[in-house]
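Minutes, methods subgroup
Present: GH (chair), OT, SY

1. OT presented the first of two proteins processed in the latest run. Sequence and structure tokens recorded below as shown on screen.
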Amino acid sequence: MGFRVIAAALLLMVSLLAGCSEKSPNDPNGNGNVTKDEAYWTDVGWARYETGDFQDALNAHLNALKIDSTYVPAISGQAWVNLELGWSGLALRQFEEAIGYDSLCVDCRYGAAYMAHTQALTFTGNSRPHYEKTVRYGEDALELSGDGWIFRYNEEVNAGGLRVLLARAYYALAEYDRAHDIVDLLDPNNTLNPSEPGYLQDLLIAIESLGGGGN
């Protein structure tokens, strides 16, 4: 373990043990004017997330959930962190938990769609239910957010990328017309023709040529 990693771990331990020394993103001078409630710790978590300090981010969100176990921004926050850490199954369950508390949580549905798709790619022998979840959460997310939505904490998560993910899921479910509709929307100049030989292969190539989609 390198010196920087050890130093970072020691710094984190000190900050957690002496919680009053933790500075809020909204209180950079540490004047102590911010109540260290669940909202405070969630803000800290998102600030750490944006700098890529995912373990610190997770600890902050967990601090928030110790105060209020049903606080949706913190549940969603830990799910996004676990997504980054590669725990797709755990992240999916946490996104679904957040949706259970707040059915209008847009980023929760985006995250659930992404993680359901990851699960489909992971468990290929039982992928259909995961693709179906991808579609359900993804379509709900687009209905709630509309076109042009971008996740405030990660601009790579956006409506366009989610549509690509949906096209892949529809293709995997053999709902080729739905997948084609998305290609038409994102690439109006495509030359796909369902009556042409090799159409399904061409459709798949067209979907992948759109890029994005996250995974």
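2. SY then presented the second protein from the same run.
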Amino acid sequence: MNSTSKLGLALALSSGCLGAFGAWNMAGRIQSFNAAESASARWHFERIDARSTTFAGRKLTITDTRTPQDTAAMKIVYGDNTFTLDVKEPPAALPDLSAYTEWLSPLYFAPIKDGEISVDWTSGEGVRLAIVNRSTAGYDDRTWGSVRVKDWIFEVIELKSDGTIDRKRMQYRDRRGRVPASINEKGEIVTTDILPIEERTWQWQAALFAVPRLQISRYRYGSDAVEGTRGTPGMGWTLPVTGFSAMGLFIGVVMVMAGSVKRKPQSAIIA
């Protein structure tokens, strides 16, 4: 075995051992991420198209109305509470809420545990009720109507079983993890009452019901098995170690194969 083969064998063995160590730790970290992900709450949603329903013994009624500026709005009555939502003008006047599908959705929702919806639909125990309204058009008329997804602002309203109403204005974070509404035209951070829609919350999934269907794929979790979450470290050092070890193993095998090639001696050339 020549020096090239010896060096290649040493490189292949060391890289293989290091790669196996990195891959083992990587698998453990991925397993931890998947375990934490499966333990987190997941949600089942059912859209309501009816303008009138009953929840927790209180009647919910949704009717069309107009603002003082003569723009479209909805009057919502829940028990003893009444409020108004500014909405986009519907394409047609319909007896139900199907005309508002792309920007407003009343939703029943419940948590999913161990692959099953943990709720009794007969008694309503465990069911929650929310209304999600996309309050911005999300496109710029000056640019031929190009969609500006990051500018979408959602009103997320939970109608609670005790008769109270929890109303928030929320927005998906941008790729840098910022709330777009908190950044002015100069790139400076400004104060805003708009809250971020955090990953793996019911608000994240509920807001998708007020989004045009062609834009759903735009929203993806920023945290995954590679990046990790607050409770899991992600792949971290295991990813580059395993990757470079695989490269080292490949180069070592190539060197061993190259060193084992036997070359015939060149014949003397007789003039």
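Chair's summary of item 2: The mean pLDDT is 80.
Next meeting: continue with the remaining queue.
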